[in-house]
Each structure stands twice: as C-alpha cells, then as structure tokens.
Specification:
Helices cover 69% and strands 0% of the residues. By secondary structure, it is an all-alpha fold. The protein is elongated and about 110 Å long. Pfam families: TMTC_DUF1736 (PF08409), TPR_1 (PF00515), TPR_16 (PF13432), TPR_17 (PF13431), TPR_8 (PF13181).
Length: 713
C-alpha cells in the first residue's frame, strides 16, 4: 500500500501556480535600472572579451579577461557567461547596464519556474503542493540578490538554468520509451551539463544530484540499503532488482564517465594548476594549524546556513575583517558544535527513519543543498573568498525544499494547518520585502558600499570601496579618510596604499605619495600599477633614472600595459630623448590602438620636430582607430594651416567641430586660420564663439582685439 503525503497546506491550481511563482520572482525587479557595480566593472566594463577581443580568445581567457596560463589568473573559466555579455553588447553596440539587469531578472524568473518543474519531478504528483510552496520560497529568498541584482551573478543564473535543464533531461533518459529516445536524452543531458560547467564550475555538481535522484527517488534505494549491501547484510529487494536489470548501474556508470571526462577537460584548460590566492582573500586557508583551519571552515559553514535561515545581514564582500578567525578558545566553537549536532541529527535521520516518501524528499533536499556547495567548501581546493552569497543560489533550492517539508510535518504532527499557512505567508511577505530593499541597495555603488558598512564596519575592503567611490565622485577628502581607515584596519592593503598615493600625488604631496607606492611594491612585488605610479612621481621629482627603472619593472610584471608605455614616453620627452619617446608611444598604440593621448603626443612631437609629413601620416593612421576623436582633426588642421593649406585646414577644423562642438580652442584656432586667410568676418565670428564657450580664453581675446585694430586701420 502506497503511503500518502498530507501537506496540510491548501493545494494551488497547477495552471495558477506558475503565474504566482513568476510574480513572486519579481521581488528583484526594482534593480532593473541599476548601474554596473563592484565586480561588474572588471568583468564587463573593463573586460575586452565582452566588447572587442577576437571571438576564440574568450575560450582561452578566464572570467576577468586574463589568459588562463597567466600566473595571476583566477582560473575561473566561464566562457558561456562571457558570451552572453558579448551577445548583449553586439546587439546594442554599447554597454547599457539596464539591459544586463533586465536579462538577469528574466533569467531568475525562468529559473524559478524550472525549480517548480524540478521539484515536481522529485516529489511526484503527490508532492505537487510541497513543490509549489518550496518554489515560492525559492523565488523570494533574499540570498539571491547578489546573483540577480549584481550582473556578474549571471554566472550563477545560467549555471542554475542549465543544471535544472540537465535534471529534466536526465529524467527523460530514465523514462524514455525506447533506446533511441534514451540516447538522445542522454546526449542532450551531456550538452546541458557541459554548458552549465562553462557558465560556472559548479555546474558539474548536477551529475551528483541526478545520481542521487536515480538511486533514491526512481529506484527507492535508501542509504541504509546501500550500507547493508556493502556490509553483506540483508539487501532490500529494490536493490536486488536494480542489480538484476542493471539499468541504474549503466546510468550511474555513464554519469561517472561524463564527470571524469569533464573534469579532465576542465583541469587541462587550467594547465593542471590551481589558482593562487592571497591570505586576505581566504585567511582560514593560510592557517598553519590544521585543526584551527578545519574549525574556521566549519564556522563559515554555520554562517552560510544562518544566511539562508535569517538573511538580514547581507554584504557584497565578507573578507578583510568581516569574519575574524578563531585562533584560540572562542564562544563560536559552541556554534559549530550546535550546528553539527543539528545537521548531524538530520543526516542520521536519513539512515534510521522509516522508509517512506518524506524520507526520500528530505534526502533530495539535502542533496541539492550540499552538492552544489561542495566546490565552495574548501574541501577539495581553496577558494578565493571567505563567504559569498552568490554561491548559495542553487543550494538554497535544497534549503527551501527542506523548510516546506518541515512545515508540512509540523502541520501533520500538531494539526495546525491554519497556523502553518499563516506562518508561511508571513515568511513569504517578509522575504519579499527584504529582497526588494536589498535589490535597491545594489542599484549603485554608493548605496551598496554604505549598506556593507552597517554589516561589516571592520572590513577594510568596504572602506576601500567607499573611498574609491568617493574619489570618483570628486569627494577627495572623504576618499583620503576612508583609504586611511582601510589601511588602519589592514596595514598591508597594497591597493589602498596605491590609491591613496594617487590622491596625494594629485594633491602635490609627492614625498608622501612616493612612500606609499614603495610600501605597496614591497608588500606586493608584482603590483605593476603601483610600480607605474611610483615611476610617475619619481619623474615629477626629476629622478629620471629611478623613474625609468620603475616603469621597466611595471612592464616586466605586466607585458601588456599601454598606459605604462605612454608614461615612459612622457619621461623620455622630458629628457628630450625624442626617438625613445616616439618608440614608447608606438608601443602604447600597438597594445591599445585607441590610446588617444599617445596618438596625440606623437602627432604633436613630430610637428614640433618639423617632421610635418610624418605627423600627417601618423594622424591619418590614428583616424583608422579613433575616427571620432576631435583632437586628431584639430591637430591635422593646425599642421595644414601652418603649411598654408587653408582650404584643407578649414575642412579638418569643421570635422573637429562636428565631433566636439563645445571645444573653445577649436573655434579659436579656426579664427586664427580665417585671420591669416584674410576672412576677417569669419575670424571674428569664430573668436566670439570661442569666448562664449570660455570667456577667459586669453588667446581668443587677444586675437579678437588685434582683428578690431586691423579692421579699424
């Protein structure tokens, strides 16, 4: 006789439930018009893979656009996620943050629907009510905010999408009507698993979920049956059946084979090397004491579970002091003990409980909770973060399923259906509101960083990002204070030293700046940006040899560094080593063909050296890469004007005005051209336009006065 599951929660129409899920999933919709924030800048805005690199290079670079073979690469190989960014850029021919946010919100809604379908497969027709309530909880959980409202969270969304699709396809493989259909479904399943893994590495864990689903749900083999089998005790008839027909063994063998092939491919792409992180990224991994390291890992597991249970304290970054290490006797040790007591009790329940549908549902919930989290657990390899809310996106589906199963058991035990429904409804409302508020905080960096300050005031990275945001907004005083606070909390924060040094350099405090840059490169030898900035300050202090050495050191650690070549050229210009300056700027434009300042400086230098023909050739070459840069047309016009080619010069000036109609110097110099050309009325008009745009432009005032004198005479 089949056991029946009573949910004690009102059933929802199958035709209505998907619409409710979609509506609830829109709790993040108010982030649709947000900016590119935090990691979005490096992964999308500054990532050449998103907008101009050759297509196949995407498959050779990591998520941040760095070659996988580079020693500084994070080895995060997610080419399909980058391709999704690239497709949106290609459609718009521009980076519009709103487009990316809208796609993320749509993907989350699709995922919530697929979650409902996956739950329905796991739980069957008898558990459809549980499926709906669990999917609704998944749709509104605030832990998803980072994945949905942060554009780089696209990796989690796409990975989750292909993970759920692979589970649905694996289900088709199991119940295929004939061998052909089974092979087609298995092939499609393999494609989806591969796609999930190419969106984010955790996609491969879908194989584990499918294996447990096949064993526990399809073949009704419980953990105790497997233990009895390997201990040669009484074997349940279901296990005997699966061995007799070998269907499950063949499918499990196929899953293992696929997993091995994908892992080998993944490691071969990485060059069979693992990424190297700094201690500030994951301090627990750098602890010498193994027991303390394991204790800290377990405390982080507790925090992950707590964020699922009570997602009040959410932060964009949990490193650098957010979570202090347990180094000796600490009350947090008892938190770990309580966590494992409760979690261990749940695990033991799966071995000693009666064999029924509820137990199988609990096992599936635990599987979805644990399997996708394993890559972030530091068990197999160290990760580059302490705690990241985005990695809980897929595991939260297991948590939501366990919560609703617990709720239905509570209702059955105490016969309180109304109380359970009221509690569930209140929970959905509170989580919806929390998700709405949290997604608002992800709309721009100022809100995001300020919200983190309330959660992790001792996090040096939070203060660093507040300072960076303040500096970009022109609030230099606040930026200096926040950088100093970041350095107080983390005296070895090289990036904060570099940025504070830049502010002091711009403020004329060169000696203080040079001290900070030297500290930064002493802490991080390969910090190429700090080496370049050190070279800039040394050049300003007329320490030319030291400056040149600093620039060469920066280029040693970062071969592709056009800005460094540009500054090296400026150094040679100051020393009147013109040929060296030209070579440095040529290198800058080779590495970055759109480097405007390098092109402009080469044209001006060649003109000053009376190499006008070379200057014109250089200018025309520059226009091939930056055809809309007004300064190039302006410089061509000046060169032609000096050569007496007034008509050609006039055309170039007008091209410059077309691209920069508010540039006062363009009008002023065009006035000079007309002045020389004896078109005095036109010259007067240009001088007046220049003065309208910049009333204190001395050259235009002086030339206009001379024009009036000429007219008067």
């Amino acid at each position: 006789m089949k056991s029946k599951i009573n949910t004690y929660l009102p059933a929802v129409s199958p035709s209505l439930s998907p619409w409710i899920i979609v509506i609830l999933s829109l709790c993040f919709v108010n982030s649709y018009n947000g900016d590119f924030v935090f990691d979005d800048t490096e992964a999308i805005v500054n990532n050449v893979d998103v907008h101009k690199t050759p297509f196949w290079d995407i498959f050779q670079n990591d998520f941040w656009g760095t070659k996988l073979s580079h020693k500084q690469s994070h080895k995060s190989y997610r080419p399909f996620t980058i391709l999704s960014f690239r497709l949106q850029f290609w459609l718009r021919q521009d980076l519009v943050s709103q487009d990316y946010h809208i796609v993320n919100i749509i993907l989350h809604s699709m995922l919530c629907l697929l979650t409902l379908f996956v739950y329905n497969i796991f739980l069957g027709p008898e558990g459809r009510s549980i499926s709906f309530y669990a999917a609704a909880l998944f749709a509104v959980h605030p832990i998803h905010t980072e994945a949905v409202s942060g554009i780089v969270g696209r990796a989690e969304l796409l990975c989750g999408l292909f993970t759920w699709l692979s589970i649905l396809l694996y289900n088709h493989t199991i119940y295929a009507k004939n061998t052909l259909h089974a092979w087609v479904a298995m092939f499609s399943f393999t494609i989806c698993i591969t796609a999930a893994m190419l969106c984010k590495e955790t996609g491969i864990t879908a194989i584990g979920i499918c294996a447990i689903y096949d064993i526990v749900i399809v073949n009704k083999i419980y953990p105790i049956d497997i233990i009895n089998f390997f201990s040669f005790k009484h074997v349940d008839k279901n296990l005997n059946n699966c061995i007799k027909y070998k269907n499950i063994l063949l499918r499990l063998a196929a899953l293992i084979f696929i997993a091995i092939i994908l892992l080998l491919l993944r490691f071969s792409i990485m060059g069979f090397s693992i990424p190297k992180f700094h201690s500030v990224d994951n301090p627990a991994s750098f602890m010498d004491n193994v027991l303390l390291r394991i204790l800290n890992y377990n405390y982080i597991y507790c925090l992950n579970i707590w964020l699922l249970i009570c997602p009040i304290w959410l932060c964009f970054d949990w490193s650098m002091g957010c979570i202090s290490l347990i180094t000796s006797y600490d009350y947090r040790t008892f938190v770990v003990i309580i966590f494992w007591f409760m979690f261990g009790t749940l695990i033991m329940y799966t071995f000693i409980s009666h064999k029924n549908k509820t137990l199988r549902y609990i096992i599936m919930g635990l599987t979805i909770l644990i399997c996708p989290f394993l890559p972030a657990s530091n068990i197999f390899f160290n990760v580059g973060f302490v705690l990241a809310e985005r990695v809980l996106y897929i595991p939260s589906a297991g948590y939501c399923l366990l919560v609703v199963i617990g709720l239905q058991k509570f209702s059955a035990r105490f016969s309180l259906p109304k109380t359970s429904l009221s509690a569930y409804t209140m929970l959905i409302v509170l989580l919806f509101i929390r998700s709405w508020i949290r997604s608002t905080q992800w709309k721009n960096e100022k809100l995001l960083f300020q919200s983190a300050l309330d959660i992790c005031p001792l996090n040096a990275k939070v203060h660093y990002n507040i300072a960076k945001n303040a500096a970009d907004a022109g609030n230099v005083d606040l930026a200096k204070l926040e950088y100093q606070e970041a350095l107080r909390l983390n005296p070895n924060y090289a990036q904060a030293m570099n940025n504070l040094g830049n502010l002091l350099k711009d403020d004329g405090q060169l000696l203080k700046a040079i001290s900070l840059f030297k500290q930064a490169v002493n802490i991080q030898k390969d910090f190429s940006t700090a080496w370049m900035n050190l070279g800039i300050v040394q050049s300003a202090l007329k320490k030319y040899e030291e400056s040149e050495t600093s620039y060469f050191t920066a280029l040693q650690y970062r071969l592709n560094y056009p800005d460094c070549y540009y500054n090296l050229g400026v150094l040679y210009l100051e020393q009147k080593q013109y040929n060296k300056a030209l070579r440095a700027w040529i290198n800058a434009t080779k590495q970055k063909p759109t480097h405007k300042r390098a092109w402009t400086n080469m044209i001006l230098l060649l003109d000053d050296l009376d190499r006008t023909e070379e200057a014109l050739k250089m200018a025309n070459k520059a226009l091939e890469f930056i055809p809309n840069h007004a300064s190039i047309y302006f410089n061509i016009a000046n060169i032609l004007g000096k050569k007496g080619k007034y008509e050609e010069a006039e055309i170039q000036f007008k091209q410059a005005i077309l691209r920069d109609p508010t540039g006062p110097m363009i009008y002023a110099n065009l006035g000079v051209l007309y002045h020389r050309w004896n078109k005095l009325n036109a010259a007067e008009e240009m001088y007046k336009k220049a003065l309208q745009l910049k009333p204190d432009l001395y050259s235009a005032k002086d030339n206009l006065q001379r024009l009036y004198t000429l007219k008067g005479s």
